[in-house]
Amino acid sequence: MYLKTPFWRDGTGLGSHNDSQSPVADLVNSLDRQRLYREITLALRTGLSDARAEFSFLRVRGLRSILKFLRSVAECDATINLFIHSQSIPELQVVPVLFKHSLREHEDQDVASLDHIFTVEPMKIISPSTDAEASVALRVLEGCCLLHRESTILAHQYKAIPVLMNMLSNRGVLEQGACLDALISILLDSSANQMDFEACNGIEEVALLIRDKQVDENLRLKCGEFLLLLIGHVNGGREKLPMATIHDDVRRFLGEKSASLIWAASQLGSTLDTEQRLTALHIQARRVLESIDLY
After folding, report:
1. What is the pTM (predicted TM-score) of this model?
2. Domains of the chain by range and CATH?
3. Which residues form a coiled coil (predicted)?
């Protein structure tokens, strides 16, 4: 959403503090906000229309449009707030569309009856989700949950954790990497999703991937980063946590040395900026991987 300057701002001469308090400035700001909200709703309606399509290539087009839209929304607090408001409108909610179309498990389209043959209405056939579609849908899910906390509640209603854990076990490297990022965004500050993750033996599933030397090394590194982020979040959270046994689980599945490394790395505090934390996270994940290979 890179918008041109609207015509009503031409010649207003706004800029000084006194001007910003004038009725004209209030009117201009109100028009700007309404215009921006219309652009947001239009972008969502257009993207979601394609994301509900019967054919995968159309759904991919819609999902990519929504992902691009979310990236532009994240650049400004004002647009983030407008996006959050838009998600209170059912027909503009993104998460339900993802789980009803792109992230749903493929069902064989068995013919239960022959009624459609003897009627004028054709049988509706929906193409299954491709690997590219699933990976983009996971990126969209991640963006929605990071920008809009209530999206994690919607994701829980659609059994997001079991769906994503199934994809993590059965999909390719591209989808597995996107799945780990989406899982982190869903688990943050969501007790319900954390309980589902524990019920699905999530730590064990991730540990199996990180210990399997046949798995792509980049994916194993991402698994290590996932554990570091998850434990770091749990350490900094409240006392009563659904995942209270996470440290014991990591020690049981990855060994004492790896568990100690993960715990120490999770203590990286807020003294580091974002770039430094990402670099440290990657280094620590590699150390964890090396310790596991020696275990």
Report:
1. 0.82
2. 1-8+31-104+129-200 (1.25.10.10), 201-294 (no CATH)
3. none
